Each structure stands twice: as C-alpha cells, then as structure tokens.
Amino acid sequence: MSIVARSATLTDRLAAYHAGRSSRHLPPDGTLDRWCEAASDGDPERMLRRLDGLGISSSDLPECLAQPDTSRERLPRWCDLLIAAAEPTAAAGTTENPLAPMIDDDPAALPVLLAPLLQAAMNDLARVTPEVAGAAPADAQLLIGGLLRQLQEQLSTLVQTCVAAEIRRSRERLPVGSEVWESWTNAQAAGGLIDLWEAYPALARQVGIAVNNWVDRTEELLTRAAADIDAINDYFGTHVTRLERAVTGLSDPHRGHATVVNCTFVDATGVPTHLIYKPRDISTEVSFAAVCEDLAEHGIDSGAALRMLPRGSYGWVEKVEPRPTVSTEDADIYFRRAGALVALLFALGATDIHGENVVAHGSRPVVIDAETIMQPSMRAGGNRADDPRRGELDTMSVLQSRLLPQWVWRDDRRIDVSAFGAPEGWADVLLPRVRWIGAGTDGAQVEVTLEPSDQRRSLLVDSHGEPVRIGDHLDALVEGFEAAWQQVADLGSAAFDPGGVFAKLSDAPLRVVVRNTAEYTQLLHEAIEPRLHTDGLLRSLHFERLARSATTASGEGLTGALLNAERDQLEAGDVPYFTTTANADELLDPKGRVLATFALSALERARVRTAAMTPAELTRQRKVVANAASTNAVSTNRL
C-alpha cells in the first residue's frame, strides 16, 4: 500500500482530495515552490491561473497534494502485476529460467533482474491468448519471443538509471571484490524487485503499466491478425496463413503504448508478405488516398496512393520501402509530384508531414501517415479571435505542411526534418540515448549520449545512393506546384460540399497537433532521473512544465483541461495524442469532455485556404516554394 500511495500522481491526489480520501502524508517542504517554478516560471499570478485550471485555489494547498489514503482502495492493476512478479514461482532463480531461450541474455538488457516481470507478462498473456502464448509450437514461440524481447528492451530502458544508482550505492557500501552487480541483481530478482519498488515507487507504477500495456497490445495484435487472415488475402491478393514476426515501436507510443507495427505474414511455404499494422482508425488515410485518385482525374498527379485495409479501430497498410530514382527524368517526375503535394496539402491545411511520414519510392513521394492532413485552429487563450479567418489568411504558408525544406534550432544545432530537405539537415538530428558502460561488471554505470536518428525515409537517392537535391529540380517542383494549385483553385471551396472532390474528408477523424512532439519526448527523456521516480508527485510536477506557455496572458489555446490530459498521458509513458473530426468545433477527450474549442474547425480552415488560392496568392507562395528549395540545397550550418 505504501508503494501505491507514494506513486500517486497529481491527478490521483487531487481526485482523492475532492473525494475526501486524502491521508495525512503531506508533501515535503519546498514542493509548492518547485511546482510554481515548473508551471509558471515562479510567477505567483500565473500560478494562480494554473490552479484555476485544476479546479483548486491557494486555500486548498498543500492538503490537496497529500498522498491518497489507499488502505480501503482496491489495488490498481499495475500493482497486481508487480505482486504476481514477486511470487516465488515467478521470481525463482536464474539458472532454470524457462524464458531464457526467448529473451536477450546481454547484461545490458538486464535478463536476470527482469526475469520475474517477463514471466508475469507471459503468464498474463497466456490467460488471454492461450492458443498462442501457452505451450505453442516453434513458430508461435518465435513470434512471442520477438515481442517479449521488445518488452525486455522497453523495461530495461525504464529501469536502467535507477538500477545504476542502486548498483553505485551497493558498491560504496560493500568491500572491493564483492561482485556487486551479480549479488545485487540476483537478490532483487529473488525478492521480486520489491526493494527496488520501495525505493522508487513511481518507477514501480511505470513498469507495471508498461507490462500491462504490453499484454493488452500484444493480445490485440495477435487476435486481430488471426481474425483478419481471410480479409488480408482477399484485399491484398496474398495467400498468407499466419503472422510470423512483429516489430513494434515504428511510431511514438500513444494511448496505452500502442505503436505502429511492422508485421511479416507467411504462406504455407514460408513466402513472406510485409504489412504495416496501425492500431488506430485509418479511415482518414483511406479517404485521402481516394481523394488523390479523384484528383488525378482532374490533372493533379501526386503519385499512386497506398493500399489500405481499414478494420474500424485499426487497419493494415501495404509496406512501402525507399527506392532510388533511375534517371534524371525519374527525379523530375518525383519532384513534379512533390510540388503537387505541396499545393494540395497547403489547401487542406496539413501539418507534420515531415521526413518520417513520407517515403521516397522511386518517382513517388508516398505519404505514409496522413492523420494530420487537416488541422483546426486553436483559440488563443481559449477565446474566439476577433476574426479567425483573417488570422488564417495572414499566416498561411506552404511551409506549414513541413514538406518543404526549413531550418529550425534544436539544442544549439540547426536541423531540417522536412520531407524534401537536404541530407545535411537530418544528419544533425541527434536523439538522447542512455547506454550502459561495463554492464554486468562491478564498475557498471550509465551515460547519456546523442545519437543520429535513422527515421527519415523521405530522402531521395539515385542509383548510386547519392542524394538527389530538391534545388537541382526546382523547375519540376514549381511546375507541379503551379499546375496543382490552379486545379485546386478551380475546384474552389465548393470541393468540400457533398459530391465535391474533398467531401470524403469533411468528417474525417484527425489527430490534433497541440504542440511539437519534441517537447513531449524531451520531457519523457528527462523523467528518467532517479530522483523523479522516488515520488509520483515529483514526477507529475516535472511534467507541469507544459503549463508554462498556458499560464501566460495569451495562453495559446492550452486550457487547464487540455494540460491535465497532456500530463496524464505523459505520466503513463505515452506521447499525448488527441483526435477530433474535420467538422468539429471542439476537442473532446475519450469520455466526451471538452478539452478545448477551435477558432476554426479543420473543415472551415481548409475552406478558407482553398477560397484564398488566387493568382496573387499563387505568386506569393510560389516565391516561398522556390526560396525554400534553392536556399536549402546545402546546409548553411556547414559552410
């Protein structure tokens, strides 16, 4: 019960306070100052606005931050998992570990320490999918083993900084030559990791949630893949019989750590078929593909669309790999189509179509993630702007889709993560990684390194593997842009009316990009600090840094409810994810509660932009296209 109470988040504590279930365990001195600094840069007036967004006032402090009284509460599911992992059968020694053939035995992967958790995960999975996770044949063991190793990697990343801190403490207490690593990990595993959870209750919560999510997402994937074999064969023209391999983590984790999965199906003779599993509604991408096909009849050639099989709350998509161009003419076709995409996505008001969401496939720029092809306009400070349409006209730009080259500052480096940017721009995209040094030895420690990202697949290369630069094909780019612009302008905003070419998108489900995803991932990375795992409230206050922009006078449309929803998702280890429909005026959470209102719905915003595609606007935006392509042909931070 102590672990549960101390792991309680800010949301948990406020809920307990309002329900009269708070304990007498108040937060330590300095907590309120720490919160004020995190949420409002230490500004008391701005902090009052943050408290208002949480439904409390200064008179509720500090009592509202007390630990919940968990003595009469049912233990949360994540705690049930940790208790199961602490059972003697799950935490039994390492020499007879039945999972040994399935998991990574590299000391950096912490196989001994994580064995109880991995066994508890397998036991849970066997209960929900016994035909796959139980005494399965070799092919099922291969599939499950691969997924289990991915869970092992996730858990080792979660716990490694705290493990390193405990190894260091043990090394300081014990005499030289005590085999600290082996004795500490064996003792922890034998005790079901309870000592580790006592020291780091917020980590216990994270680990329990992660394992539960793995069981849920794995069960979903295995069940859906088995149920959809016939539909997959009918739609894609294959003869597959089973799912052989699944690689998770192809996207940021959202809503219960669901990620895009690279799936390999095989037929009876072992011939593979590669499909992408998306654990969300893909109807928007299906509609966008249909729109692209319809627009091709109007002379707008943006390349062939992906083949997709929607299944309601999820879907299967053909896997598209990067492919080089074979000639200069081939490259011209690619950039002509790229120009058409720039014009089309300008009209729709797209964003986030960057280098991770486009694949350069020969002469085709293929958009592989179209969930942000339309976007609403957030209300500044939650209030209606005087004239949101005027504001849209004043700020709209072909750069907003992130297709075209554009340099931005990140961590004192200039980078370009656009879809069609120069290769040098992506080379400086460095991501923090925590790595073991000397794992398995008594001198083991961790360090944070910056490593290049390998996510960009939109870089076009020739048959020799050399980058094909957008600036060398400026004429083709502008030609495709102008032709598509004129065609869309001729269609006008009426294209969104019933029967119009864009009508399929009028009620499409969309992802709302509240803020740059890099802000979320940076906060999650910084949350690995061991001190933040010693108390759930401390970790919550770390994520309260998101509130700084909302507690200013303008607020940027970030309401208290929206900020709370962002923090809650981060606390569960997910990158916050919000959805709406193109014609909606409000952003709702999954329970239907209003998180924010829009100055313009995504549909209204697209209508405004399409109606404004005049010859004069074409002249302005064409200059932006040409300047972006020509001035970014070579990285300016390398001159």
List keywords for this structure.
alpha+beta; three-stranded antiparallel β-sheet; about 10% strand
Give the strand content: 5-15%
Total beta strand runs: 16
Mean pLDDT over the full residue set: 90
The percentage helix is: 40-55%
> Largest sheet, if any?
5 strands, antiparallel
State the end-to-end CA separation: 60 Å
Number of helices in the DSSP assignment: 22
Roughly how many Å is the radius of gyration? 26 Å
Overall spatial form: globular
SS-derived structural category: alpha+beta
Which stretches of 5+ consecutive residues score pLDDT under 50?
Answer: 90-95, 381-385, 633-639
The strand order across the widest sheet is 1-2-3-5-4
Question: Which helices and strands, and how do they pair?
Answer:
Blueprint: H1 2-6, H2 10-18, H3 31-40, H4 44-53, H5 77-85, H6 111-128, H7 130-133, H8 138-173, H9 180-190, H10 194-199, H11 201-227, H12 229-236, E1 240-247, E2 261-267, E3 272-278, H13 283-296, E4 308-310, E5 315-318, H14 328-348, E6 358-361, E7 364-367, E8 377-378, H15 388-395, E9 408-410, E10 413-415, H16 423-427, E11 430-437, E12 445-452, H17 474-491, E13 509-512, H18 517-526, H19 536-543, H20 560-571, E14 578-581, E15 586-588, E16 594-600, H21 602-611, H22 615-631
Antiparallel strand pairs: 1-2, 2-3, 3-5, 4-5, 6-7, 8-16, 9-10, 11-12, 13-14, 15-16
